[in-house]
Design goal:
Blueprint: H1 9-34, H2 39-67, H3 96-120, H4 124-138, H5 140-151, H6 154-186, H7 188-198, H8 201-226, H9 237-256, H10 268-294, H11 299-322
Length: 323
């Protein structure tokens, strides 16, 4: 890998050409990814991609005049000046925040590159062009603002905000809620059956731990493999799977952890069971609140449904364990 200081003027121009081409392709990839979900914002990135294509043509014209048609094969990864970042642009259905942050980083990096390259260049024409490009990159934030004002009118922005909120629910809230409901409710029966069958806190905790982790792994894979997000726009399947799996495990562990009360403590089983019962009802109320907040379900209706379902599962476990 070459240091920036060791680059020749020819290599600097070739690197600038390659960088502008990369930025053009990345912005077009962002525009394509956003087109169906946020068409107005996609137009903003199309405009930024066209600006990068203009820079590419200017640099290539200067390079040909100075050094001929053969470009030096050098890219960002060959120079230690640039920060190595994950290729987020290869992922579909990225969030707007991720895309905007990547664009901001690329523009700031491009400005710093052109300023440094201008200091190192010897030819007055090359130095002048690099400084102009640094100024242009600095103004891309203003360009994005102007393009946004032209394309993101108030009604369009409202539609995109509503869609963004809907996608947030689909990609994060829904898998998390499904996992929390499954973990909180489905593990009640085995946990309390073990508790009332053994009256042994440690054995009950082991059953709860196994049920929670097993349910978390199962729900994680089920969510990840059920939908790859291509048609539904629900985002990365593995991210949804991870969210669902973790929330499932947490939902089950919440009422299993009280059984870590040592059996040597007086009335240990009663204490642990009382705490676990309180945790169960707290979990069920949290689920009801999330359903009311994000799923447009009336709170009392959500509370009645989830508490009734949880109470039935809880009673089932207690009856089986006490039999």
């Amino acid at each position: 890998m070459k240091s920036f200081a060791s680059l020749s003027e020819r290599e600097i121009l070739a690197l600038a050409i390659a960088s502008e081409e990369d930025d053009n392709r990345v912005y077009m990839a962002f525009a394509e990814d956003l087109r169906e979900r946020y068409p107005a914002t996609a137009k903003v990135f199309e405009g930024m991609a066209e600006a990068e294509a203009t820079h590419h043509r200017m640099l290539e014209s200067l390079y040909r005049k100075r050094f001929g048609p053969n470009l030096v094969p050098i890219r960002r990864s060959d120079v230690n000046f640039f920060i190595k970042r994950p290729p987020v642009w290869l992922t579909r259905n990225l969030s707007l925040d991720t895309i905007r942050k990547e664009a901001e980083v690329r523009e700031a990096e491009a400005e710093a590159f052109y300023l440094r390259a201008a200091e190192q260049a010897q030819d007055p024409g090359v130095k002048s062009l690099l400084r102009d490009l640094a100024s242009t990159e600095r103004g891309h934030e203003e360009l994005a603002t102007k393009l946004g004002a032209a394309n993101l009118t108030a009604p369009v922005r409202m539609r995109e905000d509503r869609l963004r909120a809907r996608l947030f629910v689909l990609q994060y809230i829904q898998p998390g809620l499904a996992g929390l409901m499954d973990g909180s409710v489905s593990t009640l029966a085995p946990l309390f059956a073990a508790a009332f069958a053994t009256h042994n806190n440690w054995q009950t905790f082991l059953v709860g731990l196994a049920a929670s982790l097993g349910a978390g792994i199962s729900m994680g894979f089920a969510e990840a493999l059920s939908d790859d997000g291509t048609l539904t726009g629900r985002g990365s399947p593995w991210l949804r799977g991870a969210i669902s799996g973790v929330m499932t495990a947490l939902g089950g562990l919440g009422h299993a952890l009280p059984y870590l009360v040592p059996d040597t403590v007086e009335h240990a089983f009663v204490i642990a069971t009382a705490i676990a019962t309180l945790v169960v009802f707290l979990e069920l109320w949290i689920i009801a609140f999330v359903r009311a907040r994000y799923m447009a379900t009336p709170f009392l209706k959500a509370a009645l449904q989830i508490v009734l379902g949880g109470a039935i599962v809880l009673a089932t476990g207690i009856l089986i364990g006490a039999a």
